[in-house]
Amino acid sequence: MTTTPLPPSLTATLPGRYYTDPEIFRQEQDRVFEALWFCAVRAADLEGPGAFRTVRVGRESVLVTRSRTGELRAFLNVCRHRGARLCTEESGQVRRALQCPYHAWTYDLEGRLIAAPNLVKMPDVDRAAYGLVKVALREWLGYAWVCLADEPPSFEETVMGAAVERLGDAASIDRYGTERLALGRRISYDVRANWKLIVENFMECYHCATIHPELTDVLPEFADGFAAQYYVGHGAAFGEEVGGFTVDGSAGFGRLPEVSQDQDRRYYAITVKPTVFINLVPDHVILHRMFPLAADRTVVECDWLYAPDVVASGADLTHSVELFHRVNTQDFAACERTQPAMASRAYREGGVLVPTEHHIGLFHEWLTKQLAT
Ligand code: FES
Ligand code: FE
């Protein structure tokens, strides 16, 4: 069955089946997650040659490795012999080569087939033709972004462009030096909701006054539900009494060295479609990566990134991390409360987008176009 995309509407949400139908989810895997740039792993998680991570991208398992010369490479995690999954662990480190656990075909860190039992007795097997299948990879903000498409879309336009769209220029995000920051905390959330509910929730702040008391204490303008309209480059201002972006408004860790005066004491939120959210505050960066696993299940991995000296000093990050951890918990609970109702006849025609949510309508427009490609 193919699904005819609906004409998008800026006042109505997508119909409920878009959040529950496995066939629509399959189309999204094909035309969204496997067609666009997908933020896979944090580069610093692969330390030294031979480090590897496996990550699910759409329906594929992708293997990201660090080569002998220190670059990141990505391959489909499939042995070319009889198709066994090459690496079954989520992460690990090999000395110089990846060996398939089935018949021991062995690939170097560039994906070349370098050994196989009795290969010399198999002159018909062209070693060069049976290297691992390469996947396009770009590094940005300290993360490896991969794309399974044969012809990946422009990284500059489709990924980096989101920051420009939100902040007004490319340099603004560069000032946070995200690729040089250290991981302070990582929390993984297993959310029983469709990935689009999570995107839609992140894109609006109509719910902030209702479910985010700690966040609205720090960012008072979010309390009136209109914050999503803040204009390009503006960011949401901290309350006057607020010391930092912390759960109780106590002081944070100052300001990252290149963050400008006008970025100070402000919060910026960027959505990089399809699966990434970035929050910028003066002393840290919060980066969410979503891994949609089923129509009703999405794993969200959230990294809190700080100046390396803050992390190295062993500073207590609790108050800092706790603010957005609470926001995440509140948001994901809301998404999980919404998910079962997507299958209700009450939501057959979808719901309503109030005026502050019209950019969610633009997200639906983008998605339905993508599904029609
Ligand atoms: Fe990998 Fe046979 S399937 S070596
Ligand atoms: Fe929220």
Automatic annotation (TrEMBL):
<keyword id="KW-0001">2Fe-2S</keyword>
<dbReference type="InterPro" id="IPR036922">
    <property type="entry name" value="Rieske_2Fe-2S_sf"/>
</dbReference>
<keyword id="KW-0411">Iron-sulfur</keyword>
<feature type="domain" description="Rieske">
    <location>
        <begin position="37"/>
        <end position="146"/>
    </location>
</feature>
<dbReference type="Pfam" id="PF00355">
    <property type="entry name" value="Rieske"/>
</dbReference>
<dbReference type="Pfam" id="PF00848">
    <property type="entry name" value="Ring_hydroxyl_A"/>
</dbReference>
<keyword id="KW-0223">Dioxygenase</keyword>
<dbReference type="InterPro" id="IPR017941">
    <property type="entry name" value="Rieske_2Fe-2S"/>
</dbReference>
<dbReference type="GO" id="GO:0051213">
    <property type="term" value="F:dioxygenase activity"/>
</dbReference>
<dbReference type="InterPro" id="IPR001663">
    <property type="entry name" value="Rng_hydr_dOase-A"/>
</dbReference>
<keyword id="KW-0560">Oxidoreductase</keyword>
<keyword id="KW-0479">Metal-binding</keyword>
<keyword id="KW-0408">Iron</keyword>
<dbReference type="InterPro" id="IPR015879">
    <property type="entry name" value="Ring_hydroxy_dOase_asu_C_dom"/>
</dbReference>
<protein>
    <submittedName>
        <fullName>Aromatic ring-hydroxylating dioxygenase subunit alpha</fullName>
    </submittedName>
</protein>
